[in-house]
Amino acid sequence: xxxxxxxxxxxxxxxxxxxxxxxxxTPPELRWVDWFTAxxxxxxxxxxxxxxxxxxxxxxxxxxxxxxxxxxxxxxxxPPPRPGSSRPRPRP
Amino acid sequence: xxxxxxVFVILVALSFDFFNGFHDAANSxxxxxxxxxxxxRIAVLWAAAFNFIAFLVFKTKVASTxxxxxxxxxxxxxxxxxxxxxxxxxxxxxxxxxxxxxxxSHALIGGLAGAAVxxxxxxxxxxxxFRKIAVFIVLSPIVGLLLAFTILVAVMWAFHRxxxxxxxxxxxxxxxxxxxAAFSLGHGGNDAQKTMGVILALLIASKHxxxxxxxxxxxxxxxxxxxxxxxxSGGWRIVHTMGSKITKLQPVGGMSAEAAAAATLFFTAAxxxxxxxxxxxxxxxxGVGSTQRLSxxxxxxxxxVVWAWIxxxxxxxxxxxxxxxxxxxxxx
Lengths: 92, 332
Hints:
Shape of chain A: elongated
Structural class of chain B: mainly alpha
Distance between the termini of chain A: 21 Å
Oligomer: heterodimer
Helix content of chain A: 40-55%
Largest sheet of chain A: none
Shape of chain B: elongated
C-alpha cells in the first residue's frame, strides 16, 4: 500500500508558489489578486493532497469524475470488441 | 500630408484590430465549436455580435493604459505608432502561420515599446505600466485556470447525483451559449480597447486631442466594428489548437472554461489592465483538463503556447525596432 501526494496537488502547489512570488512585484492596489489566487491554489493543493493520502493504491492521482466524462452514459455493458476481434474484451 | 499619414496609420490600426479579431476568434468560439454546441459559422457570428456590443458594457480604461500608461505619450509620433503596429502585425502573422495562440495584445505592447525605444531610448518606457502588464502575463492564465477548475468541481458536486445525463448535458450546452457570449463580450471589451488606445495616442501626438482627452465615440465604434468583422472572418488554424489539441472538452468543461475566462476579462477590463484573452482562455482550458487528470492536458502543445507567450513581446519589439530604426537614422 503506497500513500503519496499526486502530481496534481504538486501542480496546484507550484501555482500557489508562483502567485506568492508575484506579490512583491505586483502594484499594491492589485496585490489582493495574488493573495486570492495563492489562497485558492493552496486550498486545492491541501484538498487534493488529503484525497491522495487518504486513498490507498498505486495511483495517487485521483479523478474527480470517477474515471469517466460527465456526459458518458452509464451502461451495464462492457466496452465493444476491438476491430477485427471476434470476442468481446472482458470487463475491467 | 500629415493628415493623410494620420488617416493611413488609423486605417493600419483598424486593420490590426480586424486581424486581432481574426486571430482571436478561436478563443471566443473554440470551446463552443469543439463541444458542437454551435456550428462554426453560427459560432463566429454569435461571437462577433457580442464583440461589437461590448462598448455598451465597458469603460475605456484599457485604452487609456495603452495610450498613456506603457510608453511616454510625448514620444508617440505617427512614425512610432506605425512601426509599432507593423511589429505587432508581423508577429501575429508569424504565429498565426504556425498555429500558435499567442497574444495580439502583447504583440502590440511589444511593438509600441520597440519603436519608442528606437526613437527615444529605454527611458521612454513607463516601468509601472510594464510591471503591471508583466505580472498579469503570468497571473491571468493562472486565475483562469484556478477559476475554471473551481467552477467545474463545484458543478460536478452540484450535479453528481443526477442520473439523467442527456438532459443534464442539454442544460450545459444551453448554458455554454451564455458563457461563450460573456467571453466574447470580455474579448471585445479588452482587445478592441487596445486599438482605441493606439488611435487615441495618434490623435494626441498629432495635436487633434489634448493629453487629458477620453476616447471619442467614433473611435470606440470603429474599433468594435473592426474586431467584430475580424471575428466574423474566423481563424480556423488556431481553433483547432485551442479546441482539441490542449485537452478534449465536454459541454460542461467548455462552459466552465468560458465562464472563468469571462470573469477574468471582466475584472481586468474594469481595472484597465490589458491582458491577453488568449492566455486567459488557454489557462482556463488547462484548468478544465486538470479536473480529469493532469495527463488529460497535452503538455507538449501547452508548452509550445508558453514559449510563444515568452517570445511575443521581445519578438514584436525587435520587428518594430528594425522597422523604425532606418527611418530614424535617415531622419537625423
